[in-house]
Amino acid sequence: MMDRLLNNNVALRIIALVLACILWLAVHAEQGGSQQTSTGVTESFELPVRVETSADEVLMSQVPTVTARVTTSLLRLPTLANEMMKVEIVADAQDLGPGTYTLHVAAVNMPAGVRSYALAPATITVTLEPKVTVERPVRLSVVGAPSQGYVLGKPQLGAGVVEISGAQSSVQSVAEVAGVVDASGLSQTQTKLVDLLPLDGAGKAVPGVTVTPSAIAVTLPVTSASQTVALVPAVTGTPAAGYAIASVRLEPARAVEQGLPAGQLPPGGLRVPVDVTGLAKSTTVSIPVPLLPGMTGVSPAAVTAVIDVEPSALATLSNIPVTITGATGVRLIGPRTVTVTVTGAQSAVQAVEKDVGAVQAYVDASGLSRGTASLPILVHLPEGLSAVSVSARTATVQAMP
User: Which of 203, 262, 259, 268 is nearest to 233 (CA)?
Assistant: First the structure.
């Protein structure tokens, strides 16, 4: 009979299950994890509590765990621990409004094989505050420096303002939303994703506050620290009486600067002041190249200014036509021509006498939509010349209906 029993698979499985239950009970009995009674076996589980709140309320208090004492049959005991992982302990705080409340807790998804259970404590105390959402600017801090020979431009933020939401008291304590981006070793423009933190006035992170978006893209523009820039003479002062400046040129006409990226350089070039006060003859002088704010150096540090000085001359140019710019549908009533007296270096005056068309007289009719108007006559002259007089100061124009 024993041989038949040992050869019976079903009987062996039943015996193995009984022995496993006995062994399990022996181990847990030593550890105090379960208790067998006439109604079954009781096991204890520590479970967190999920407090359900309204969308416009925020839970401010710490929620304790709850001990669930669960009674089940001896046969269901081996699988109870896995089944209890699906159990949730909930407390309903919806539609209560701000304040402190004592709430009953309840178990959800309790296993079907559980005969009975008890929760301790059966109630919890919670505090609710109104949920608010406000906007805050982003303060970005850059740490580290680009590789040698490169400079960092102004970082470009994907979002300069973000939303923060949470309990009213927590949001009110947020002084700023800050992020830190590392520019160490960069040798080219790069975009990085930067996490944002809500900080209080002491620079500490404020808990329980949500930042939306939680991270922003920051572009770090990196350019070579050395840029080639054009040098432009900026003439100051007045030469001696009876003389005029025919031309000023710089040698060399370009320099290499360090410190400013190309995008921050003057579009017309770097202006180099050249003082011509009292000059009565052509001369050559050495002039230092000025540094703009942000520049750390320039090469060469000084350039040669070649100043051509000539006797001044005067010429009167007649019958210069007056034209209209800045608008269409506007007609000139008069005067139609003007006489312009110019002065300057002798060679420049002689050149304009041969090419009177280089002198332009015009009125700017921008913004004139109807009626008649008297507009100032403007004169455009070749470089090195200036107007001494114009025979008429204004011209009358009429906007066509």
Answer: 268
